[in-house]
């Protein structure tokens, strides 16, 4: 992801629009190049970037947008392209959680100018560690290759004259990791389809339970279900999300409350200290200091603090019996909360 931001030509003082509800690197990649992360809010149904919020964040300094296919659902790439129409802005797709997902007939990772995949051990396709970057633009491909492996040492021999961001990184994947990942890729459908089938089964079992909202899948989208995320409405169930998670745990069902705390609440953003001791890039000559107050992305904050919970064990090995147990546990604990079973 860092290489993708560098290849996009992001420079100090530029702005990169990012999601607050994702792994920290999706925003920190901007800071590595001295740019300022600008957090746009998320859609309350798919948890991906909201194009309307992105539009409100655009300025003349916006250089790139990093969208995340969160939980395996592709971000609204068509909507994001409409938002930036006529502007020189690079779209970067963080598809780490979405191998095998699709929008129409195009796979996640190919929906933006640059697509990024993770091969971390808990991803759908993995080789222990590492990643893959893809693009269909020759200019970006060359820059990615140079950034991957100490571009500063080879640009002279290549006759490459644009030296921006071509310095000092080693992002090479080992041959063993590449071989493992190649074999994993051959199994993509057999790894993804059972996740989809299991998620569809669980959605049917949970549909109609008051206070639960099952995953939304936009028309024309194939969800990759890195995790299975639902929303809980405590005003309907009469219990808090934390109570529900604890009750599910007592039933043997591990559920997670929220996903990640909105990234702008991390010390780096709250204290404005990242590169060096003087607040760069949050404090730069000629512009007001950048601050990240609470309430910046109200939907992301609401999801994290009270509504979203997710199950992370849905994979190719999960059986229907397992999913029946999950659905039965939700039914039991929420019936107990509603007083329909003896306390």
Layout of strands and helices, then pairs:
Blueprint: H1 2-7, E1 15-18, H2 25-32, E2 36-39, H3 51-57, E3 62-68, H4 77-83, E4 90-94, E5 102-103, E6 106-107, E7 114-118, E8 131-135, H5 138-148, H6 155-158, H7 175-186, H8 188-206, E9 212-213, E10 221-222, E11 228-232, H9 234-237, H10 241-250, E12 256-257, H11 267-271, H12 298-307, E13 308-311, H13 320-337
Parallel strand pairs: 1-2, 1-3, 3-4, 4-7
Antiparallel strand pairs: 5-6, 5-10, 7-8, 9-11, 11-13, 12-13
Helix pairs in contact: 8-13
Would you write up a description of this structure?
By secondary structure, the chain is an alpha/beta fold. 35% of the residues lie in helices and 14% in strands. It has 13 helices and 13 strands. It has a 6-stranded mixed β-sheet with strand order 2-1-3-4-7-8, with helices on both faces. Strand 3, helix 4 and strand 4 form a beta-alpha-beta unit. Helix 8 runs parallel beside helix 13.
List keywords for this structure.
globular, 13 helices, 343 residues
Largest sheet: 6 strands, mixed
Task: Quote the distance from N terminus to C terminus.
Answer: 50 Å
Query: What are the secondary-structure elements, in order, as H or E?
Result: HEHEHEHEEEEEHHHHEEEHHEHHEH
Question: Which of globular, elongated, flat, extended, rod-shaped describes the shape?
Answer: globular
Number of E-state strands: 13
Quickly give the structural class.
alpha/beta
Radius of gyration: 21 Å
Secondary structure: helix percent: 25-40%
Strand content: 5-15%
**pLDDT averaged over residues:** 93
> Unreliable segments (pLDDT under 50, ≥5 consecutive)?
none
Q: DSSP helix count?
A: 13
Spatial sequence of strands, sheet with the most strands:
2-1-3-4-7-8
């Amino acid at each position: 992801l860092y290489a993708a931001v560098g290849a996009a030509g992001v420079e100090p003082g530029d702005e990169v629009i990012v999601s607050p509800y994702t792994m920290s690197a999706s925003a920190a990649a901007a800071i590595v190049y001295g740019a300022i992360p600008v957090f746009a809010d998320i859609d309350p149904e798919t948890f991906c970037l909201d194009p309307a919020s992105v539009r409100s964040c655009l300025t003349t300094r916006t250089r790139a947008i990093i969208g995340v296919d969160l939980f395996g659902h592709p971000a609204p790439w068509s909507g994001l392209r409409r938002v930036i129409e006529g502007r020189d802005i690079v779209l970067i797709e963080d598809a780490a959680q979405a191998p095998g997902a699709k929008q129409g007939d195009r796979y996640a990772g190919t929906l933006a100018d640059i697509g990024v995949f993770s091969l971390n051990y808990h991803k759908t396709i993995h080789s222990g560690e590492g990643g893959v970057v893809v693009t269909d633009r020759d200019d970006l491909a060359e820059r990615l290759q140079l950034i991957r492996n100490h571009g500063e040492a080879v640009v002279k021999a290549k006759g490459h004259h644009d030296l921006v961001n071509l310095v000092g990184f080693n992002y090479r994947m080992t041959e063993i990791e590449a071989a493992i990942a190649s074999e994993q890729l051959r199994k993509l459908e057999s790894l993804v389809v059972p996740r989809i089938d299991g998620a569809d089964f669980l959605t049917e079992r949970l549909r109609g339970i008051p206070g639960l909202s099952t995953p939304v899948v936009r028309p024309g989208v194939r969800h990759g279900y890195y995790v299975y995320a639902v929303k809980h409405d405590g005003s309907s169930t009469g219990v808090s999300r934390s109570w529900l998670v604890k009750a599910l745990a007592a039933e043997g069902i591990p559920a997670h409350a929220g996903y990640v705390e909105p990234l702008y609440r991390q010390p780096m953003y709250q204290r404005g200290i990242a590169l060096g001791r003087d607040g760069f890039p949050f404090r730069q000559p000629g512009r007001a200091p950048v601050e990240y107050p609470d309430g910046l992305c109200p939907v992301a904050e609401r999801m994290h603090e009270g509504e979203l919970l997710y199950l992370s064990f849905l994979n190719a090995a999960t059986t229907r019996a397992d999913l029946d147990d999950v659905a039965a546990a939700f039914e039991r604990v929420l019936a107990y909360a509603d007083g329909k079973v003896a306390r």
